[in-house]
Amino acid sequence: MHAVIGLRSRLLRTTLVVAAVLGASAARASPPDFPPPDHAAVTVVSNSMTIQGRTMAVRSFVSDDPVEDVVAFYQDLWQEPPVKGAPGVAYEPDVLAPWHLLTRVEDGYVMTVQVQPSNSQGSFGYLALGKLPDPGDGPVPAPPDPPAMDGSALQSTMVNDDPGKEAQTSMLINEYSVDSNVHFYRNYYQAWRKDIDQAMGNKSLHALSFRRGSEQVIITIQGGRDGSQIVLNSIKHSVL
Q1: Are both 159 and 127 inside the same structural domain?
Q2: Domain assignment of residue 197, yes or no
Q3: pLDDT digit string, tens, across residues 23-61
Q4: For residue 33, how far is the Cα from the chain centroid?
Q5: Sign of the alpha-carbon torsion through 100, 72, 121, 2
Q6: What pTM did the predictor assign?
Q7: Quick one: 76 and 180 in the same domain?
Q8: DSSP state of 81
Q9: Contact present, 156 and 171 (Cβ < 8 Å)
Q10: What are the phi and psi torsion angles at 73 (to 5°)?
Q11: Termini Cα distance of the chain
Q12: Could you report the per-residue pLDDT of 73-101, keeping only the tens digit for each?
């Protein structure tokens, strides 16, 4: 899921600029056609994922075609502006390198393509489709901040609301060691049942998992030269 995190503030700014050009003339209709690249294998990631406060349907794809062919596919598909004066597609090849980002706003929806080279000769990426906010909509409530050591920086948060479970995935960084972060989370979740507490990769990576009733938290902590990166996945399963 790290890749989807790339749909961050720069994407949001791009979307808002394009949406401003479209203005109120974009009537809310059914979602526009948003096909995957030719010859791609597609998997549904989530039909309801919150990214930057907006709910989006996200698919992943793997293709034997190189990134350049995927970019060309969408530039050709979206070359016609949805309304006069609007761009057909906004293309940003470098802002999230190695990801290439394409964005189109049409009929009150935003479509984004995020693609990068795969380990082979092909490519892989994500397709996201979501509604633009209606005029007059207030600010979107932010999801709660995850628990973290003082001084930690929250890089991104995604929220999934799929049948049977709700999940929030957050990525943080801080200047502390892996051991310090592990100690913090052990103490924070000490009242929960501990399922996993395991060091890996010569102690440069640590996995933790805690459970309480229908709630589960899975944490991975990876150390580096400047501190640690933490991915915290909080899941609440529906009780039938």
Answers
A1: no
A2: yes
A3: 434 445 688 999 999 989 999 888 877 766 677 888 999
A4: 21
A5: positive
A6: 0.59
A7: no
A8: -
A9: yes
A10: -60, -45
A11: 28
A12: 999 999 998 888 778 999 998 877 788 99
